Amino acid sequence: MAYMSQEGYDKLIAELQHLEGVERPKASAAIAEARDKGDLSENSEYDAAKEAQGHLEAKINQLKLAISEAKIVDTSRLSSDSVQILSKVEMTNMANKAKMTYTIVSESEANLREGKISITTPIAQGLLNHKVGDEVEIKIPRGTVKLRIDKITVG
Length: 155
Description:
Blueprint: E1 2-4, H1 6-35, H2 44-69, E2 70-72, E3 87-93, E4 99-105, E5 116-118, H3 122-127, E6 135-140, E7 143-154
Parallel strand pairs: 1-2, 4-5
Antiparallel strand pairs: 3-4, 3-7, 6-7
Helix pairs in contact: 1-2
């Protein structure tokens, strides 16, 4: 089961509808066009179109699975007392005093450019259930980082 926001769930639905409604017909048309060019045994366009269709169908199935396993979190019921999924956490790196802000989200909603990190990352795992003022040491691939939680908000 994957916990996610309503926004993340809606994005998955929109992407699935686009793949099924727009990309799937395009893939079928590309296969039909390549098939019309004759001998399939030496038709690289046909092979490429079939392979692209296979990747598309795999992505559609992956999205359907993610949607079926999704559990939408009601943000109005979340607390900002401690770090949990959909918490926005402001923190300070104690080594260099750098300030950072991350929102902890499901794997499918993670987007570092938007400051959204997956709940499965070492930093998110290290922050879970901690409170404002806590200093946590988290093992990351480059060693250990010490972070102080400055503020927790929801959403």
